[in-house]
Amino acid sequence: MGEEPNSPQRTPALPDGPMPKHAQLREILRELAGEELPHGAAVPSERDLAVRYGVSRLTVREAIGQLVTEGLLVRVRGKGTFTTRPRIDWQLHLASFTEDMRRRGMHPETVLLDAAEAVPPPATARALGLGPDEPAHWLFRLRKADGVPMAVERGWYHPQAAPDLLDQDLTDSLYTLLARRYGLRLESGTQTVLADDADAETARLLGLRSGGSVLVFRRISTARGRPVEDMTSWYRGDRYQVTMQLDRDPGE
């Protein structure tokens, strides 16, 4: 008798060996998601995979779970498991979002959500060297790559460093604008990175559920030895990962 028309296609069972079966299946699914299926495509169900490769549902669940953790697959409650875009690996350096995306061969896009002159919070005033009631330029922008929301930015800029900033086109690289119009090339910065849950507004803009995982970067950048920028960015946790080179202190 042949197989029923709707039964899952059978392949040789995964062999016993030095590599555990969940690891073998993980690599099969990695290749499937990375090379054969388009982004957003459904992968076979746990039951189908278990039958196809002659393994238990627990083995399938473990293999899928590892790829979900890596950001290669995503589970959608009540619908199944789907391929997703691989995480962008961000190596910490002082570069604009626009420059970074273009270097990766992606099309960057900036949506200006708001811009105003306002009195910043005390921590920002101190970071920029402003008086208690001295205003600064405030920008609120959504950053996209290949049409996909990647980050929400809320930034403050020193008013004396870029006096008419709010009258400029703020939908392209801000660092390029600062360099070309004001002769300001950001030279150094301090950046704090933390993981957090997205608030309702940030989640909506990034296409996440409220409380979804985000990476938060607060960057204070200087040009000509003076602080120019105090910006906080919220990046999608399922789209980004951070790589840092660690060198041991030779004095230790």
UniProtKB/TrEMBL annotation:
InterPro entries: Bact_HTH_transcr_reg, Chorismate_lyase_/UTRA_dom_sf, Tscrpt_reg_HTH_GntR, UTRA, WH-like_DNA-bd_sf, WH_DNA-bd_sf. GO terms for biological process: negative regulation of DNA-templated transcription. Residues 1-10 have a biased composition (Polar residues). Residues 1-20 are annotated as: Disordered. The keyword Transcription regulation applies. SUPFAM superfamilies: Chorismate lyase-like (SSF64288), Winged helix' DNA-binding domain (SSF46785). The keyword Transcription regulation applies. Residues 19-86 form the HTH gntR-type domain. Keywords: DNA-binding, Transcription, Transcription regulation. One of its GO terms (molecular function) is DNA binding. PANTHER family: MANNOSYL-D-GLYCERATE TRANSPORT/METABOLISM SYSTEM REPRESSOR MNGR-RELATED (PTHR44846), MANNOSYL-D-GLYCERATE TRANSPORT_METABOLISM SYSTEM REPRESSOR MNGR-RELATED (PTHR44846:SF1). This is Transcriptional regulator, GntR family.
